[in-house]
Design brief:
heterodimer; A: mainly alpha; 15 helices; B: 479 residues; alpha/beta; 5-stranded mixed β-sheet; 19 helices; globular
């Protein structure tokens, strides 16, 4: 573990021996450290403490040790939420590849590329709740999408996309992918801009096709950005799906589209069980940290090598 | 060179120190300080008839009476009230009228849409600060939050509680004489079924027909569906199906069965309670509910369907906005709305072995909304005075005419109010009710689990027994 931490830590800057320089440096970082301590570490430690307690009747707290942690192994809703998160992570390659490919298409200068870039980025700016209200109408069993499918002879696919257990979570992730593609396009287009045009010219001279250029020239040159974006989206899929599930499905039908952060909200806010909610939050933090560490160690760092 | 660098570094250091100190001072000065008013200053309010401890139980006593002259000399008090409502104007006016009667007390009403009300309330409870008075619904929404509620035994007596229907459910252990009084009921709630008489007439049924048995309801539904309309407008994405389970619980349960859920003597899988899920499953299989009911939203899917004549029946709420007795009358016309409860089941129909209970065919009335004083309130005396004003007969009458709703007062003379017939029909059902809804006795996340399980039943992905087992598990795991 320590070797991993050493790997994660950037090279320390050499500080001057002058005590005033050291004090000055500490002073500069003090506000940020204070903010992080107050708004991150204190709540985290408080949450860890609360996770060991349970409200009993009118008493706010009763120490239950790891009881809240044991409970989650038999909590069908929580287990369903974790499975749904795994489903989301399985789509991570798509979440990265699609905006990457779209960015490359736009970067190669198709007609109206600026317009398309702006149009795609616009979806990233739309509030999730607004999108949820809109798509609840469009994706309803008798909504316009199904009407279109039936009109073109694809009535077999006209299902309640958000109301069917088999399709609800995948529909939610498809919507998240649609909403986030614009951000990826902008990021990757900026990364492609750092590639020397000579490389593309050389590939063209060698007779490389579009996809050969994409996979063998463009992608290797932006692998660091790809890895970073993958970490970003991976963390978001674990920690930032709440507004989408809240506005689209409410976690249903049943627990078909339940996700961890939405379930924690439900346990804390509606069931008023802060102890259990805190325990779930600690576990979710641990899972997210594990996913990010794996990505960072085995993907991002390797992308920086050579 | 080194001297100049050192001087520059020192100057920068000093400037940074000054900036840091300024930031800290600004942060500290923005933090709220303790209230200037306290119980001592507000004690004079207790001298007013409107706020007397254990004051007159007679609803005819005018609680709008102005405060005593000593109250006017007291320090001004500002009360914050949190409530869920689609019509904040009524509540704001209530606060203004209260201030007219108590000039030293001003009020500020924060109205939150119901769908996000408990999120906001939860945030205040977690922070242990916020409004002085909150609205909470009897049932898990109250029982899960008693740690944030100030017992009101010091300000209200059993005689006060006896004014309100089923008020024992607002007290600890369902006994206001021995337990804490959590809040004062001011609205009763129930989940009646509204009938669109025009739809019945369209499909060839007598417009005044009210099904009296499960069999008659099924025959009516099949006739309605054959005509291309939906039987019930149901949208189970949020809470709508919870109301259906609540009302179906009346089919077989006794009062002991229902209360036993809270004490643990009864399980959700026991036959009298399981019947609610079995009947819901049966209704689903008979096609009473729309095909996409599992994912529809209460508003606008269900309400829109009923208001536009797309269904014959709609299970709504008794009062409080939206399609209640007032809203349905406004949407469809007072003469076109009927009100009923789920009809009685028969022995062995629709479920073999099912025995009708004593409350079949009645409405599930509960003292739905109580006004509570929060534990962190620095003005409990004034807050109690406001609650007494809020739950008075005058305010109840004004609420009926302005917002709809249904007062919790047992004796409320509405003969001088011009109310539609749907109110009278609802009132008749309320008067005959003796059992609150079974969902009132759920704990923890039971309500959320019931909603999730009914969605699965609607999709054919769970049986009634599986649903009841999941609910029982949630009940056992609740704090």
């Amino acid at each position: 573990m320590f070797s991993v931490l050493r790997t994660l830590s950037p090279a320390r800057p050499r500080l001057g021996r002058d005590a005033s320089e050291l004090a000055f440096a500490l002073l500069l970082v003090a506000p940020v450290v204070a903010l992080v301590t107050v708004f991150k570490w204190v709540p985290l430690l408080t949450g860890a403490t609360v996770s060991l307690r349970k409200s009993v009747g009118t008493e706010r707290e009763a120490f239950v040790g790891l009881g809240n942690y044991e409970r989650m192994f038999t909590d069908d809703a929580w287990l369903a939420a974790l499975v749904n998160s795994l489903k989301g992570l399985s789509l991570l390659p798509l979440f990265v590849l699609v905006p990457l490919l779209l960015a490359f298409i736009l970067y190669r200068g198709i007609f109206g590329w600026r317009f398309f870039r702006s149009l795609m980025f616009l979806t990233s700016l739309l509030p999730p709740v607004m999108v949820g209200i809109m798509l609840n109408v469009i994706l309803a069993g008798d909504g316009p999408l199904n009407a279109l499918l039936q009109a073109i002879g694809l009535g077999a696919f006209a299902i309640p996309w958000l109301g069917t257990s088999g399709s609800a979570i995948w529909t939610v992730y498809a919507i998240i992918g649609w909403a986030s593609v614009g951000l990826g396009v902008v990021i990757f287009m900026a990364a492609f801009g750092t590639i020397s045009e000579e490389l593309f010219d050389a590939a063209k001279i060698d007779g490389a096709s579009f996809f050969q250029t994409f996979f063998h020239v463009a992608m290797p040159m932006v692998r660091g950005t790809v890895a970073f974006y993958g970490i970003l989206i991976g963390a978001a899929l674990l920690l930032a799906t709440f507004p989408w599930v809240y506005s689209l499905t409410g976690g249903g039908p049943g627990y078909a589209s339940m996700v961890p952060d939405f379930y924690i909200y439900r346990i804390f806010g509606r069931a008023v069980d802060p102890g259990y909610a805190s325990a779930l939050g600690i576990i979710l933090l641990g899972l997210t940290l594990a996913v990010v560490l794996v990505q960072y160690r085995f993907i991002y760092l390797r992308s920086q090598e050579g | 060179m080194d001297d100049r660098a050192t001087v520059r570094g020192s100057t920068t250091l000093v400037q940074s120190l000054v900036l840091l100190v300024a930031l800290i001072v600004a942060a500290c000065s923005s933090a709220p300080g303790p209230s200037a008013t306290g119980p001592a200053a507000s004690g004079s309010v207790a001298a007013s008839p409107a706020a007397s401890v254990g004051g007159s139980p007679d609803p005819s006593v005018d609680s709008n009476a102005p405060a005593s002259p000593t109250a006017a000399a007291a320090n001004p008090v500002h009360l914050r009230i949190l409530g869920f409502t689609a019509q904040p104007e009524h509540w704001i006016q209530t606060g203004e009228l209260f201030t007219e009667a108590n000039p030293t007390i001003t009020t500020e009403f924060e109205g939150i849409p119901y769908s996000s009300y408990y999120d906001k309330a939860g945030a205040y409870i977690a922070a242990n600060e916020g409004p002085d008075v909150m609205m909470l619904e009897i049932g898990p929404n109250l029982y899960n939050r008693t740690q944030a509620v100030l017992p009101l035994n010091e300000y209200f007596s059993q005689a006060d509680m006896d004014l309100y229907a089923n008020s024992q459910y607002a007290c600890e252990g369902f006994d206001c004489t021995t337990g804490d009084i959590y809040g004062i009921p001011f609205i009763v709630q129930a989940h009646p079924i509204y009938i669109n008489k025009n739809v019945l007439e369209e499909v060839g049924i007598d417009r005044d027909f009210v099904p009296q048995t499960w069999r008659e309801l099924d025959e009516t539904c099949q006739t309605v569906k054959a005509a291309g309309k939906e039987c019930f407008a149901l949208a189970a994405k949020e809470f709508h199906s919870l109301l259906t389970i609540a009302l179906l619980g009346h089919a077989t349960a006794t009062a002991e069965d229902a209360q036993g859920l809270f004490t643990g003597d009864t399980k959700w899988t026991d036959p009298p309670i399981l019947a609610a899920f079995q009947l819901f499953e049966d209704a689903t299989k008979r096609g009473w509910f729309p095909e996409n009911a599992a994912s529809g939203a209460f508003d606008p899917d269900a309400t829109g369907m009923f208001a536009s004549g797309g269904s014959a029946f709609f299970q709504g709420i008794l009062g409080g906005g939206g399609l209640d007795w007032k809203g349905t009358a406004e949407a469809l016309g007072a003469d076109n709305v009927g009100v009923m409860a789920f009809p009685k089941i028969e022995a062995d129909f629709p479920i073999d072995g099912l025995t009708p209970g004593p409350f079949g065919g009645t409405l599930n009335v509960q003292p739905a909304t109580v006004a509570v004083i929060t534990k962190w309130s620095q003005h409990p005396v004034e807050a109690a005075a406001f609650i007494r004003f809020l739950t008075s007969e005058a305010t109840a009458k004004r609420q009926l005419t302005e917002e709809g709703g249904f007062s919790a007062l047992k004796q409320l003379d509405t003969s001088d109010l011009d109310l539609p017939s749907s109110y009278d029909e609802a009132q008749a059902l309320v008067a005959g009710s003796q059992l609150p809804p079974i969902i009132l006795f759920g704990k923890g996340d039971v309500a959320g689990v019931i909603i999730a399980q009914t969605q699965l039943i609607l999709n054919g992905e769970a049986t009634a027994l599986e649903a009841a087992e999941a609910v029982q598990q949630a009940q056992e795991q609740a704090p």
